[in-house]
Write a structure and sequence with these properties.
Blueprint (H helix, E strand, L loop, with lengths): L1 H36 L2 H28 L5 H6 L3 H14 L16
């Protein structure tokens, strides 16, 4: 509730001051703002800041993709579970001849 009252008060003060200043003051402020915005120095700084923000955004994106390399739901669902990976490794060991004779896993667990 406090924020609404603060917002309403600020709005009322801005309206009163704006009404008192009139159209001429508004036009003067608009001209100064346009002159500043069109300044070559301001344009150069704005370009540099834009490039830095773009680079920072790319860095954040790359770091996020390193942490979570899933690009789509389809990719996520296509990934094998831990149990499926264990089964694939077990089958691979058997086909490479590294599995004990008889095809049994001696680790104690059943497959």
């Amino acid at each position: 509730m406090r924020y609404r009252i603060t917002f309403a008060t600020g709005l009322a003060i801005g309206y009163v001051l704006g009404a008192r200043a009139g159209r001429a003051r508004y036009e003067q402020l608009a001209r100064v703002a346009r002159k500043v915005a069109d300044s070559p120095v301001v344009q150069e700084v704005a370009g540099l800041v834009g490039a830095q923000v773009s680079n920072a955004g790319r860095t954040v994106y790359d770091k996020a993709m390193d942490k979570m390399p899933v690009t789509s739901v389809r990719d996520f669902l296509a990934r094998p579970t831990d149990e499926e990976m264990d089964l694939v490794e077990w089958e691979t060991r058997g086909s490479n001849g590294t599995q004990p004779p008889g095809g049994r896993d001696t680790s104690g667990g059943e497959r």
